């Protein structure tokens, strides 16, 4: 099957509904809505089955992890097949006893598991205690082939690293996709909040420009309280789709759930790369020090 040239996409920006079943039921309604509006690719937010549990360190949270394939991939598979859409989800993966990952899964339009990506960069910041839960990915940066194109899927903290985006581009990705969970500390000043959100969006626009690729980022939205008495996180939404010159194709609100629709013209990457041939002009003979932690 040849991939489409103009691809209708949908990003499901949602609040936590309380538990896995309620979240998956909401996702089912949202996927149906997206497909009804013509979407052929649906991107979900990071760890969409529940609250962002990494605000604290608690061994009980490991009980929510599941294998891949497993119950959630089976549910997403059925949705993908029912509506004829590709779905990109994000799960807490139990790989083995004591071995867990933050993993994106891709279900093709026929319901098959097209592939998965294990989050490579794992943060450890106040309110984002991911190193307690997640082992860094060991699959690498390899796009996943689907009926709508070759998807360069990464997860949240990966979005700050140009190396991952570049490696996906060099492997022939047609677009970059980031399931995301990012937000403000409610105690931050408005100026600081604006700087953080703008930097996040700018990072995606930079990946788009540097690689001549569309970028899709789907974030959760709404306040999630801290289980340990901190101020919690105000997830800022702002899910967006940008084109290969960093231009906005669609952007969601900062404060409410929505299904964000956009059309991605996959032909534009070729056109843009012809006038901005960054891949042609790379000095690969001079980049060896990128493999060092720091140039002392």
From TrEMBL:
Matching PROSITE patterns: CN_HYDROLASE
GO molecular function, one term: N-carbamoylputrescine amidase activity
Cleaved signal peptide residues: none
Keyword Hydrolase: yes
InterPro entries documented for this protein: Aliph_Amidase/BUP (IPR050345), C-N_Hydrolase (IPR003010), C-N_Hydrolase_sf (IPR036526)
Residue ranges of every copy of the CN hydrolase domain listed in the record: 7-266
Keywords from the named record: Hydrolase
Gene Ontology biological process terms in this record: putrescine biosynthetic process from arginine
PANTHER family found in the cross-reference section: BETA-UREIDOPROPIONASE, NITRILASE C965.09-RELATED
Name of the featured protein: Carbon-nitrogen hydrolase
